[in-house]
């Protein structure tokens, strides 16, 4: 299949103000963007939640990365709206509008997690040949450094991301890194992911054909909350055997939680799952101790730019 | 050396504080747990009191609301007149001073153990004032009992007028600092390590109260020297980050000429001191707002005299 060349790309940092790798990469590229420029491409680095960045908090009023649904984007502007909803409308105006012809072609949104997830690419649509090809290219280029694809396509668990206003939304998530900390090794990995992504787009625009490919991905199945007492307080925490074991198979009967009194709570059910976002700091308030995924293979048709 | 008075009586009023920083979760969850079920803190000669030190910051999972509570226990703050617009932590410090102090008074608690986490790779670490001979004895014994990972001892040398942390409200005290753990995350291994260190500390106080001898000893400690700031741009933004060769190397020797920062532009910044130091709190999240990239310490050996032996407590 052929597609139009890519023209407009944005790289978002600071969608969560305490995930510092994206914040500082974007700030650096705003000063000196030579490494993200490619011939014929417009690449715009952008800080999405400057007020949260200034305070080094995830958000001011509500999570910016959950409010890019048409309802919030269409709300009448008023001072009573949460800061992030007003900001989402500004961002939609600058880089969207969502689901329109004029929107940016690709948005990369840079995130960190406190979970041991390594380099992760987040995909919203399993039928997107272009992004599957891109992710395959990034994975191959990063090897032997592992890189995982997390597919959030789900009738109820998919959420309205900041990047979703672009035709091709790409989430980039690198961990583990504590909130409010900038680690050189994590920054280096994220920088490489962006470099390979831009190289891929450049090759595509130059007319290179990418043959059909397949690649492994992990699709969200279910979010799992911490066990809680009658007052709603957490009564058991992630078991040491599960801590840092993102992407590793978790079998029925394996320990998942340990209560404050030392009792182990095992995985129920009868299928092996692959946990992600294990013990992510920001998800305590979302009542999510980890998410279960299932492993699958994605395939993409061959792609080539139509203008060559 | 100007030392704190050495206890001549059993230590019967003991407090364990968690949540002094509201996003350091080992202490937050232990304090909450003990407030519901305090049995674990009881010993024959005393019952330690659990305290959630900064409940407002804990409720929103932040280090502090208005200012760092653990820098607010100075005489100046504690004796200041309340004002309506003062930071929450100033009010709270005065409350805690009433509850656990007053600082420098005979009514103050005998011992205060404060529980913290760091994002730095500090393993198990005790922080205290080197003049607190009693607490130095506890650290020494804890080091012998808890070998994996080997606890390190970081000491400050502060006069009573200079002390600022919550443990300075009591007659004796120290901090347990465990890392690495991200802010807002509770990890089971650190939680149980903290719990076991608190239990051992209370057991040691009980031993002292029962008349056990605590002989003199020598101990290796890391003595605080100074802080090293992050490099900045003219606009006040970070210009670089902790060098990958320094990241996670807490308590390892840092030689003159070794890289300490990697600038975003690519070049390295080298350590320019003229002697080997031992960095701690490398890349601690909470110190970005204080502009501190790490703290430098020197490794020294200190001699600590024996404690007087108490006569055994009469049977009840």
From TrEMBL, chain A:
Its cofactor is Zn(2+). Zn(2+) binds at residues 16, 19, 111. Residues 6-201 form the Succinylglutamate desuccinylase/Aspartoacylase catalytic domain. Residues 214-294 form the AstE/AspA barrel-sandwich hybrid domain. The active site is at 173 (proton donor/acceptor). Substrate binds at residues 65-66, 159-163. GO terms for molecular function: aspartoacylase activity; hydrolase activity, acting on ester bonds; identical protein binding; metal ion binding. It is an enzyme of class 3 (hydrolase). GO terms for cellular component: cytosol; nucleus. It is found in: Cytoplasm; Nucleus. N-acetyl-L-aspartate binds at residues 58, 173, 283. It holds the Pfam family AstE_AspA_hybrid. The keyword Magnesium does not apply. Its EC number is 3.5.1.15. Catalyzes the deacetylation of N-acetylaspartic acid (NAA) to produce acetate and L-aspartate. NAA occurs in high concentration in brain and its hydrolysis NAA plays a significant part in the maintenance of intact white matter. In other tissues it acts as a scavenger of NAA from body fluids. Belongs to the AspA/AstE family. Aspartoacylase subfamily. This is Aspartoacylase. The gene is ASPA.
Automatic annotation (TrEMBL), chain B:
The active site is at residue 177. It comes from Chinchilla lanigera (Long-tailed chinchilla). It is found in: Apical cell membrane; Cytoplasm. This is N-acyl-aromatic-L-amino acid amidohydrolase. Binds 1 zinc ion per subunit. It comes from the Eukaryota. It is an enzyme of class 3 (hydrolase). Residues 218-299 form the AstE/AspA barrel-sandwich hybrid domain. Zn(2+) binds at residues 21, 24, 116. Its EC number is 3.5.1.114. Signal peptide: none annotated. Keywords: Cell membrane, Cytoplasm, Hydrolase, Membrane, Metal-binding, Zinc.
